[in-house]
Fold this sequence. Notes:
Elements: H1 4-23, H2 36-69, H3 71-80, H4 85-99, H5 108-125, H6 141-148, E1 151-152, E2 155-156, H7 165-168, H8 175-204, H9 210-230, H10 236-259, H11 266-273, H12 317-322
Helix pairs in contact: 1-2, 1-5, 2-5, 2-10, 3-4, 5-10, 8-9, 8-10
Amino acid sequence: MSLDWIYYAISWILLTWHSAWDAIGVPVGAVIGTNWAWILAIIFLVVTVRVILFPVFVKQIKSQRAMQALQPKVKELQEKHKGDRETLQKEMMELYRKEKANPLMGCLPMFLQIPVFLGLFHTLKRLNPTNPGKTLYGWTADQFNSASSAKLFTAPISGRFGSTAADLAPLGANTGTVKLIAGILVLIMIATTYLTSRQMILKTGWAEDPQQRMVQRLMLYGIPVSLLVSGSIFPIGVIIYWVTNNLFTLGQQQWVLRKFPPLVPPKKATATAGKTAAQPARTSGLFGRKAAPPVAKAPAAAPKVAGPKPGAKPTNPKKGGSRPAKRQG
Length: 329
């Protein structure tokens, strides 16, 4: 299947944003070794795509909430069909169908962004002054030449960590500079990719379903590790897109998780319900710690009889009462 429609769409969005920044006065030439109009065009390509996919992202969160609510039933099925994987899978698929929950919905936004990534990768890979097909996908020769010479801190956006000196010679770039800029961006890309997955897992918890847990582990560890290798073949412009996308995801997930907070895990709910009304759970202490229970007051002691003051003569009520009155002379 031809992907030309993706290349045309990505090129149109990229060129539209570049024209917009140029129209409002963002310098076309390099400032601090950077052509900001093209860098901002890539960044706002991310914004455009994410705004379009926002309803899908909300559906992803709702699907994850539905999967979380089904975890007690999933655990019951696992206990019931322990050792019978085939029956377990059938029962779980029936449960998901009945409750209208889709385990794959959590990966849908990522899958929908793959065509955008491939389109941008192909578009930036073509940016070379020696490329004869400059006017493909709606580009003009001037736009193509401008994008080919666009740089981020003197590193061309079409350059890669693995680019050779021969590859960079037509772009007038230094191999060491390109490796430095690309290497820093790859590390940022790996870190932000890990953080986006970790943020979601910490908020929703690890899934009880083995398939779901495997997907979570793949998202948390597998993809960041794979970027160590694949990052060396990505053009710098693609890495800028990836990092911007991750930062957008971190902010969007934080907002959505506040708007649609995760469900209380069943274990915690049971533990809280088991407390007596006389001693409810208190979490108003410092950093959410449980406050110490109030100390019970000791019963009041019997009143003590005051003793004689120091230096005073002891009194004997009985003796004093029987002493005769002194006669008057």
